[in-house]
Specification:
Distance between the termini: 59 Å
Radius of gyration: 20 Å
Helix content: 10-25%
Strand content: 15-25%
Oligomer: single chain
Number of helices: 6
Shape: globular
Largest sheet: 5 strands, antiparallel
């Protein structure tokens, strides 16, 4: 069994961003193997909050909560806890799979983020639409998942192919690591088309691209990490679904972070998702700023495609 690293020396007090949040059990090991404590996670989110929150403004959020750290079970939460403070909230929403309504979580300020971290939240995943209109997404995100035998340079190649095809249609896009083995490519959109139309467009585009590159790309029809190609997954383009937020830590060994990239990094390499962690991303932000800031300008419209039938697509792009 690997030896646990010794806990770090006590850090200085939390920044003023957390004045309303009394951090409990600050020395609890969230990542026992790495020696990363709850207070280290809280300090990370306090520092990156201005960047993460601008991407989540008005978006409902789903959290991955690990109250005892990675050594114990985790769970998902997207509704507001009953004992949450009055300043943490969101809209009432009727979930399509349930008869009752729930109060969704929306992060407005750093204290919202830190209160959830104090309750064990590690990951934050945002919806693809913003309030007040949750029916029309302002982002289309392609999830590039490598098969079990695929190395990361091949994922980078797939991302370049995807970017070039989008650019040929006049669409700019922004890459980020997922904190896992794949990449996300985000296309900002005007919130004009409803989710079924955007999903049908993504499906048609992905199928055509996979047909043009059959040895590199495949379409998600089962487990996306199977096979020897990179899967283009568009399943999360639906109301109520979510994608990991830029700068979210992942509840995985090594404390990886979903990190925006420059396309030049995708082109040039060498690059590995393992290099972007809770320890390294703050310095990267200081050097480059928010590399996903361009995705906040939702000014693009989907060009016309002859859409293929989709299970939830009922209208063509107009």
């Amino acid at each position: 069994m690997p030896r646990r690293r010794a806990p770090r020396p006590p850090p200085p007090p939390l920044t003023p961003l957390s004045q309303r949040v009394a951090l409990s059990h600050p020395d609890r090991l969230v990542w026992p193997e790495e020696g990363i404590r709850k207070i280290d996670l809280a300090r990370y989110y306090a520092e990156v909050a201005p960047f993460l929150l601008q991407h989540g403004a008005g978006r409902p959020v789903t959290c991955v909560v690990c109250p005892r750290g990675l050594a114990a079970p985790c769970y998902y939460r997207r509704d507001r806890p009953a004992d949450a403070p009055s300043w943490l909230g969101g809209p009432l929403y009727r979930l399509r799979t349930q008869e009752s309504t729930a109060t969704l979580l929306v992060l407005d300020e750093p204290d919202d983020l830190l209160w959830l971290v104090n309750r064990g939240a590690i990951e934050f995943h945002f919806w693809l639409a913003r309030l007040p209109d949750l029916e029309h997404p302002d982002q289309l995100i392609f999830d590039l998942d490598p098969g079990a035998t695929v190395e990361f340079p091949v994922v980078r190649q797939a991302a370049r192919v995807l970017r070039q095809a989008l650019a040929q249609l006049g669409l700019r896009s922004y890459p980020k690591t997922t904190g896992g083995s794949g990449l996300h490519v985000t296309v900002p959109l005007q919130p004009h088309h409803p989710f079924p139309v955007v999903r049908a467009w993504a499906q048609t585009f992905a199928r055509r691209l996979a047909a043009e590159h059959p040895t590199l790309l495949s379409i998600a029809t089962g487990p996306t990490h199977a096979g020897d190609r990179v899967t283009i997954d568009y399943a999360q383009i639906a109301i109520g679904k979510n994608m990991v937020a830029p700068y979210s830590v992942r509840a995985r060994p090594g404390a990886p972070v979903a990190t925006p990239l420059r396309w030049e990094e995708i082109d040039a390499g060498p690059l590995t998702p393992r290099q972007f962690t809770l320890e390294t991303v703050r310095q990267r932000l200081q050097r480059y700023g928010d590399l996903a800031a361009g995705a906040l300008t939702a000014d693009q419209r989907l060009p016309d495609l002859e859409l293929e039938p989709a299970e939830d697509a009922v209208r063509p792009v107009q």
